[in-house]
Amino acid sequence: MRITRSMTRSMVAVLALLLAASIAMAEEKRWVSSEGTALKAEASATSENVADLSVGTEVAVVESGGRWLKVRTSAGKEGWVYAGRVSETPPAAEVAGGDGGIFGDSMKSSQIKTAKADSARSIRGLSPGAAQYAKDRGTPEMYRKSLDVVLARKVSAKELKAFLKEGKIGEYAQVQGGGK
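Now predict its structure.
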């Protein structure tokens, strides 16, 4: 059988379609893990906001720009998010809040007990094992009281943003070499 130019073109077209389909299916999924996450027009913290993204929002990674990811939401909006504000796994059920939160009515029938997340959600206090260790070692009361003060401190989103900007931390860090 002799392969003609039209057959070659057809095979190339089919291969291109298969490649495009496999790339689309292989898009990485990420989930917004930080309150106050904004979808940006460009890979910059000072760029215009395209949309606000709630904790738990699933996004598809379109392009990676180092510390920034170009993503697409399920609503079809595209933009950039700072990589430190998304996770490779869905957030724990506890960030949903007791009223269904980000998971809506679907959580109302769940057996998972939830607790509202706040800006200090990563600070949980001492685990039972750590608390027992401190008790066994006779940790002075002043240390326990100091820890309670730290754990009780609430930081507003505005205060957190100002801190990150001033310290050039996270998405406000200056990148050397002109990269994203």
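The chain has four helices and seven strands.
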